[in-house]
Amino acid sequence: MSLFSSDHKAVARRYLWSGLGFLLLGGVLALLIRWQWALPGQPVPGLAWALPESHGALTPPSYTAVFTMHGLIMIFFAVTPLLFGALGHFVLPLAIGARGLAFPRLSALGYQVYAVGGVLVLASFGVRLGPASAGWTAYPPLSTPAFTPGLGQTLVTVAVLCAAASAFLYGLNFVVTVVRCRAPGMTWGRLPLTVWGLFFASVLNVLFVPVLAAATALLLMDRLLGTQFFIAGAAAVGGGGDPVVYQHLFWLFGHPEVYILILPAWGMVGDFVAFFSRRPAHGYRLTAGAMGAVTALSGLVYAHHLFTSGMSPLLGRAFMVLTLIISLPAQVMFLNWLMTLWRGSVRLTSPMLAALGTMVVFGLGGITGLALGAVATDVPLHGTLWVVGHFHLTMGAASFLAVFAGLYFWFPKMYGRAMHEGLAKAHVLSSAVLFLGVFGGQLAAGYAGQLRRLYDPYQYTYLKHLLALNQWTTVFAFLLGAVQVLFVVNLVWTLRRGRAAEQNPWEVGTLEWTSALSPPPEGNFATVPVVLRGPHALSQPEVLERLGRDWIGQAEPLPEPASSEADDALGSVSTVGGAT
Amino acid sequence: MKSTVPVSEQQREDGAQLPEGPREEAWGRTPAPEGAQRHASDDAPGLPRHDLSAHAEGTRWLGMVLGLAAWTMFFVSLTFAVGWYRMREPWPPLPFSPLLLAAPGLFLVAGSVVLHRSRRSAPLRRLVTALVLGGGFVAMQAGLTHVAWWNHQLRIPQDGVPASAYYGLTGLHVLHVLAVLAGVFLSAVRLWRGTEVRDAVRRHAPGWHFVTAMWLLLFLAVYLP
């Protein structure tokens, strides 16, 4: 595999390995945070080499850097690149019957820019005063040189700009590819839901990543050129700027980013639930439309993050209503998934278990988010671990499980080898359960009033009783980290000795499984498929009768019945159709 | 292929194969007839080979227009930030008359016209004219910021947000202009070497229009008192 190949599958593999690496790093940092909350100020075994002065214990500055880098790495360098860079790059052209992305060189360039950002993030750990320490949102004035003077914050700010540029490039590439490069017959109504999710999320990437770029550019100018956009108070001269402007710009990007992370996950859940219930997706058009509605609304709800910033109560009320409205299309999708499952022949494969896990954790995350969307309940919960638990369930756990759902589903296509199904099931099941333990614990601690970024919460009398709860949550977190070994073992073993994958192991009809080899060659298809039907033509009576199986490829012609058989088939199918 | 088996309404909604009638059109063009197979080297599905380059050019055009339209959000965000400050307190006038500040924009407008006319034919003279106009814009912006800093003592950080916005946003905009100029320059070099650049120039023109429109946004948000 060339490091500079612009083939979408090669780029996807690069994103996959980089994303998994950053997922590991971000996960280790998460465990350090949890250690601090369970055993505040106690030395972390094996960390003395990094923090010799405290014998391996997290100090307040190092703790601040750890939680900052955890969030930032997970969002910009792990989950987003895994969803879009790895799965999106790999699947999207194959699923629409294209030979590649519309702009292959742009896609290779996107990875290179992301890689530069990744190197800067890693380098920031080695500079004096350490990496970024202003939280993943990099709110000024904390992120200005007045409060975070080290080079690390600057390097990480540039790294975020690199990740943003990369996201903009692949977002643009995906949108144009879906619009222009679909195979003949691949109408909008025949796109797999995964492609719909990636498409809508890419639209959001293209629209809102430039807003992040603008906020970050202004912040960088404050740090490097001495401008005063966000510096206020005693550190400012000449009137000074206003940090709240940054918050508005950041969340104008940041809230759509939540949907950028979840839309591809929703798409995958929609497809997998249909595939593994052996039924067409219930309300396909409604589900795609609901994703579109969420996309359209996602830019109009951002200010619920700023209810406590002193905004006008009238604005607060407007954003509250919009925020609560956005839950309606999400519920439409959820109901459609449940209706698809209802009376389906459910196969509990590893991708299906991960998809069901995604539904559960996202459902819980969505419900707990309602309390943050309403002004009256957001005010007391703002800044507590409730917020952390909520967004980890939606953006973290749901996206994580969706990544693994996609990875287990498409791994045989990517590498031509089948992963061990038992290990994969154990991995996704235990991860889903432990996610509920970890983030459920955070929700409980947040409801009890624990603020999210306290170095030692137990310095406050009213939080002392939460030590036991936090210790249990930490146990779940370490178990969650430990069960990831199941994936690593499975991955290494499969790549070295895994059995060759069958051509269509999941018995589904989408183009990547029915029209391309595993792994697909350069150019993807020997001949470009001509699409004849939608992605979920499962358990169709005429297919069962003529092919003897319950699935048919999207581009696979249905054999004509013999003329005498046709009349019989006509009668029997009409009866079935009438019965439904 | 025409199936003889009827499909229920539910199956139709669920994406089952439609047995009769024309299939839906894919982005305004009729899907290739069933059974039509494309060669492995084809780039654009469903199109005859002579239309492939036109399809590829259309794809590049869409990508470029979409990218520029989206990147407008970058400048709109910057304008939002400046608007916030302007609502907070009076915006002091810059040390130049608005007419003088508007003068560089005329270079961009003229360049837009020149490139617009170059879309059908791209003689080297027109590209060089555009480059000169773009260079003139950059030089004037550099000159004005230089004079503001040294002659009128408009400094950062001392002069707060207005000075930050003037230097910062002017600089960001000029960086975009330089990127467009680099594209035009490369096209001019290729044309000088005898390569056909009509399509490339056709793509540069919207880029130039984009920076011109963004300059107008900048003028209204930052330069006017």
Quantity of strands of chain A, as a count: 0
- Tell me the β content of chain B: under 5%
The pLDDT mean of chain A sits at 94
* Radius of gyration of chain B, whole Å: 25 Å
Task: Give start-end ranges of low-pLDDT stretches of chain B.
Answer: 1-48
Helical residues, percent of chain A: 55-70%
Distance between the termini of chain A: 50 Å
- Biggest sheet character of chain B: none
Strand content of chain A: under 5%
Query: Could you list the spans of chain A in which at least 5 consecutive residues all have pLDDT below 50?
Result: 572-580
Which chains share the greatest interface? Answer: A-B, 85 and 68 residues
The string of secondary-structure elements of chain A, in order, is HHHHHHHHHHHHHHHHH
Shape of chain B: elongated
Structure description:
Chain A has 580 residues and is mostly helical. Helices cover 65% and strands 0% of the residues of chain A. In chain A, α2 packs antiparallel against α3, α4 (151-180) packs antiparallel against α5 and α12 runs antiparallel to α13 (421-447). The longest helix of chain A has 37 residues, at 60-96. The N and C termini of chain A lie far apart (50 Å). The model of chain A is unreliable at 572-580 (pLDDT under 50). Chain B has 225 residues and is mainly α. Chain B is elongated and about 55 Å long.
Key features?
heterodimer, A: mainly alpha, 0% strand, globular, B: 225 residues, mainly alpha, 6 helices, 66% helix
Q: How are the elements arranged and paired?
A:
The complex is a heterodimer of chains A (580) and B (225).
Chain A: H1 8-38, H2 60-96, H3 104-124, H4 151-180, H5 193-224, H6 243-277, H7 284-298, H8 313-325, H9 327-341, H10 350-373, H11 375-381, H12 385-415, H13 421-447, H14 467-497, H15 511-514, H16 541-547, H17 563-579
Helix pairs in contact in A: 1-2, 1-3, 1-14, 2-3, 2-4, 2-6, 2-12, 3-4, 4-5, 5-6, 5-7, 6-7, 6-9, 6-10, 6-12, 7-9, 10-12, 10-13, 12-13, 13-14
Chain B: H1 9-13, H2 52-88, H3 98-117, H4 124-150, H5 160-192, H6 198-223
Helix pairs in contact in B: 2-6, 3-4, 3-6, 4-5, 5-6
